């Protein structure tokens, strides 16, 4: 048997839209129209985090900064601890700090 080099998208889509049981209790399974909608939402790309925060409305600005290794490690650790993306932690920290001024 040869190892496939690309995922079998049709087989995975058929499974996702089937009534197949989950292998664990970690999350509910979506099927049919719900699975298709969730897939479309997933493939749309990153949401806009403008004025209405991830609704697709408004504009979001992209900023870049450099971090030393220690600060970056602390940032990544906090993101993991809070089950958030690094970007979400940066936004939260900035909002909180700027609200003080």
Short note summarizing the structure:
This protein is mainly α.
Describe this protein's structure.
- The structure is a single chain.
- The protein has 101 residues and is an all-alpha fold.
- The chain has a domain at 68-101.
- Helix content is 49%, strand content 0%.
- The protein is built from 4 helices and no strands.
- The longest helix is centred in the last third of the chain and has 15 residues, at 86-100.
- The termini are far apart.
- The model has no long low-confidence stretch (mean pLDDT 77).
Task: List unreliable stretches of 5+ residues.
Answer: none
Q: Given the C-alpha coordinates, what overall shape results?
A: elongated
Helix-strand pattern, N to C?
Answer: HHHH
Largest sheet: none
Give the number of helices: 4
Number of strands: 0
Percentage of residues in helical conformation: 40-55%
Instruction: Tell me the Rg in angstroms.
Output: 19 Å
**Coarse structural class:** mainly alpha
Separation of the first and last Cα atoms: 64 Å
Mean pLDDT: 77
Percent of residues in β-strands:
under 5%
Observed structural traits:
single chain, 101 residues, mainly alpha, 49% helix, 0% strand, elongated
Reconstruct the topology from this structure.
Blueprint: H1 9-16, H2 32-43, H3 69-82, H4 86-100
């Amino acid at each position: 048997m040869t190892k496939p080099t690309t995922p079998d998208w049709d087989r995975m889509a058929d499974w996702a839209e089937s009534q197949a049981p989950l292998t664990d209790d970690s999350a509910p399974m979506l099927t049919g129209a719900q699975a298709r909608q969730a897939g479309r939402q997933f493939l749309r790309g990153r949401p806009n985090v403008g004025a209405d925060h991830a609704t697709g409305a408004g504009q979001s600005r992209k900023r870049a900064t450099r971090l030393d290794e220690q600060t970056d490690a602390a940032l990544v650790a906090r993101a993991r601890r809070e089950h958030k993306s690094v970007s979400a932690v940066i936004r939260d920290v900035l909002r909180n700090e700027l609200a003080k001024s």
